[in-house]
From TrEMBL:
GO molecular function, one term: DNA binding
Occurrences of domain IclR-ED (ranges): 72-254
Species assigned in the record: Microvirgula aerodenitrificans
InterPro entries in the record: GAF-like_dom_sf, HTH_MetabolicPath_Reg, Tscrpt_reg_IclR_C, Tscrpt_reg_IclR_N, WH-like_DNA-bd_sf, WH_DNA-bd_sf
Cited Pfam families: HTH_IclR, IclR_C
Gene3D superfamilies reported for this sequence: 3.30.450.40, Winged helix-like DNA-binding domain superfamily/Winged helix DNA-binding domain (1.10.10.10)
Listed GO biological process terms: negative regulation of DNA-templated transcription
PROSITE patterns linked to this entry: HTH_ICLR, ICLR_ED
UniProt domain HTH iclR-type: residue ranges: 11-71
Keywords: DNA-binding, Transcription, Transcription regulation
Sections of the chain in a coiled coil: none
Name of the protein this chain belongs to: IclR family transcriptional regulator
Lineage, top ranks: Bacteria, Pseudomonadati, Pseudomonadota, Betaproteobacteria, Neisseriales
Length: 254
C-alpha cells in the first residue's frame, strides 16, 4: 500500500486524469486510448472513461480515433508561463547568444525530479539540439539541471535531494556523486557541464539564474550543441564565460 492509498484526502480519480494529461509529453501530438493506457499503466477501460470526461470538459480534443490536448490545457499552460516574466526579457538576449555561438540556448525550471523548458532558442546552424518549450529532461544528468541545483540554498537542495533519492532508489548514490562533482565544478568555475551524460551526442554548459525578487521561481540557462560541432574546450573556454555573463545580466547582477 502506498502513502497515497492511505491518504483520505487524496482523490485517485483526479490523479488518474492528470496522469492521462501528463502522458502528452510532446513526443506524440495525438494518442489513442491504447497508447495512453500503455503510457500511464491504467486499464484501457479506465482510460476510455477519463478521455471521454476530459474531452467533454475541453481538456482533450477527439481527433481521428485519438486525442490531442485541448485549449483548456493550453490556457493553463499560458497562465503558468506568464508567471515567468523573465522569459520576455531573456528571449531576445538568448537569440543573440545562440546566433553568436551557433548553439541552442534554453531556460528551464524544476518539475519534480526533472527540468521543464520555458524558453528555447536555436541558432541558424544546420543541425541543433532539438528541444522545445515544455520538454522535460533529467535534473541530475543535464547541465541545466545541475546548474539549477547549484543555485539552491543548502536547505532547499537537501529537500530536493530527498525527493531525488526517493525517485532513484538504489541508483541514487551514483546520481548523487555526479551532482556533487557538478557542484564542485560550479564553485570553481561558475558553471556546470554535461558531456554525453544525458545524450551521447550532446555537449552543454549551464548556469543558475538568481531570482531578482523574493518569491520568483528559480531558473537556469544552458548552451548546448551536437558534440561533433563544438569541442569541450571551446564550450568551456569560449561559450561558458559568455553564458555566465548572460545569466548575471538576467539575474540583475550586471
Amino acid at each position: 500500500m502506498t502513502d497515497t492509498d492511505k491518504d483520505r484526502l487524496f482523490v485517485t480519480a483526479l490523479a488518474r486524469g492528470l496522469d492521462v494529461l501528463s502522458a502528452f509529453d510532446g513526443t506524440a501530438a495525438r494518442m489513442t486510448n491504447l497508447q495512453l493506457a500503455s503510457r500511464t499503466g491504467l486499464p484501457k477501460s479506465t482510460v476510455s472513461r477519463l478521455t471521454y470526461t476530459l474531452t467533454q470538459l475541453g481538456y482533450l480534443n477527439a481527433v481521428d480515433n485519438g486525442y490531442t490536448l485541448g485549449f483548456r490545457v493550453l490556457a493553463l499552460a499560458a497562465a503558468q508561463l506568464n508567471r515567468f516574466e523573465l522569459r520576455t526579457l531573456a528571449a531576445p538576449l538568448m537569440r543573440e547568444f545562440a546566433d553568436r555561438h551557433q548553439v541552442s540556448c534554453s531556460l528551464a525550471t524544476d518539475d519534480g525530479v526533472e527540468m521543464v523548458y520555458l524558453e528555447c532558442t536555436r541558432s541558424s546552424a544546420r543541425v541543433t539540439v532539438q528541444l522545445s518549450v515544455g520538454s522535460h529532461v533529467p535534473m541530475t544528468r543535464t547541465a541545466i539541471g545541475r546548474a539549477w541545483l547549484a543555485g539552491l540554498e543548502a536547505a532547499e537542495r537537501d529537500r530536493v535531494f530527498a525527493r531525488l533519492g526517493q525517485h532513484y532508489g538504489e541508483a541514487w548514490p551514483a546520481e548523487a556523486a555526479r551532482i556533487e562533482t557538478a557542484l564542485a565544478q560550479y564553485r570553481q568555475r561558475g558553471f556546470t557541464s554535461s558531456y554525453g551524460d544525458y545524450d551521447d551526442e550532446v555537449v552543454a554548459v549551464g548556469v543558475p539564474i538568481a531570482p531578482m525578487l523574493q518569491g520568483q521561481p528559480k531558473l537556469a540557462i544552458n548552451a548546448s550543441s551536437p558534440a561533433y560541432q563544438i569541442s569541450q574546450e571551446r564550450m568551456e573556454q569560449d561559450i561558458a564565460p559568455d553564458l555566465v555573463a548572460l545569466a548575471d545580466r538576467l539575474s540583475g547582477r550586471a
